[in-house]
Amino acid sequence: MIKLRKTLGNFDDPEILSLAKLAETQSKRTLCLWSIQYAQTHLLPIYQQAFPDDPRPRNALLNSSGWLEGHVKYVDAKETNNGAHNAATEAEGNPAAQAAARAIAHASLTIHVSAHCMGIAFYGASAIAYDKLGPNATLKEYLVVARQLWTEMEADLRNIAIENEPAP
Question: Least packed by Cβ within 10 Å: which of 61, 66, 70, 138?
């Protein structure tokens, strides 16, 4: 097996630039909702398929959602994010699950700094591309999948985006 990159893409990719420009127009709350929802729907299943008995990434998302809803303290939500990062470190040898855990950690950390939502784009695309194509595809093949995902991510964010949202 070849050594895979931790992330796919960079801020020079047109799809990433477009997603980032849309994200800049949204509030932290909207970005949190988008990234947590995306991680729960698309990335948590990849991690749980490989590590069904590890609750850390799921707990990070649940506690970040709980903080947004007002029933989890910020310090408690932020603490569970460390568990998702630790899960990623321990998932060495499974690139899709490892990238999924990293993306989940970034999604849940969006409650701290809204720019963490872009971890969904970089790590999330890696997780899904590696899961879809396996570990032996070419970088070009992975990037084809990633570019499609970035376009879909932007569409998902656009679906919940608030036009002229205050405090972007």
Answer: 70
